[in-house]
Amino acid sequence: xxxxxxxxxxxxxxxxETELNESPNRVGDDIRAMINWIxxxxxxxxxxxxxxxxxxxxxxxxxxxxxxxxxxxxxxMRTIADDxxxxxxxxxPEIQLALNAGAVVPLPVVTGEPIRAxxxxxDVDPDLMSFESRIKLSCMFMDVLLEEYEEISICGLxxxxxxRGVTYKHVKQTTLHLLRKIYLCVTKAYPIRVKAIHxxxxxxxxxxxxxxxxxxxxKKHQSKIFFYEGNGGDELYQHFPSNLLPPEYGGGGIPLxxxxxxxxxKLESYSEWFINDQKxxxxxxxxxxxxxxxxxxxxLEGSFRRIEVD
Length: 310
Known about the structure:
This protein is of the alpha/beta class. Helices cover about 45% and strands about 10% of the residues. The strands form two sheets. The chain has a five-stranded mixed beta sheet with strand order 2-3-4-5-6. A two-stranded antiparallel sheet has the order 1-7.
């Protein structure tokens, strides 16, 4: 079987080889090994495009076993986390509301650099725009970025979270169950590299969410999160160049309203793609009993009461 994948700019190929253990002479064999493994898994309904499989290999630093576990978890989450992955339609009212409010705004992509995006709390009433719809939108954008840019698997993702506007309603919407799903999706299932998360405009209410979120993370991932009481200033610009940030965040880039409009059109153009993508998932009744990801899913099917706030 002939393996065909996209070539990379020299700078990105160097990162792939030195940081991700990619060996151009071995890529074809590794992709073929992954395809053979997929065919041997009765519970997986997975995409077989070579470029798609390569993303999992890169995100696993070319450990075949880690790539298998990541892909298995990726499709399993699409089955059991239906609040995030069911009905992924850009035209759903709740997704349109989140899009128009700029809940998630990818920034212009620079070749060979990490993908950068802004996650905003916004001033929309949480009763109208739930935490689940924000996370669903975030995952939809990650899928689009994975389709269009190799940077997110090779150079990584830098996320800017603006916690300005966090209220007790946001806290009450948050469950440990949902936070656990988000953690598994972003750090262990999606074939991306999380480079850093910068949280600005921290308030006393936002600190409550921090106290719930941080204990769920590994020490490695905790070290990649940075908190700022204000807007981050010069330290933030080291990770988010001012020419990419919109004026609303102190930069000289494209205004936020234009970025929101551009990304809305982009996501809506993937409407048919999301419909087709729904067929890729896992069939849990067919899962082998010795599946290595069972421990990752322990307790995920259980439920947590919503956090009570006095």
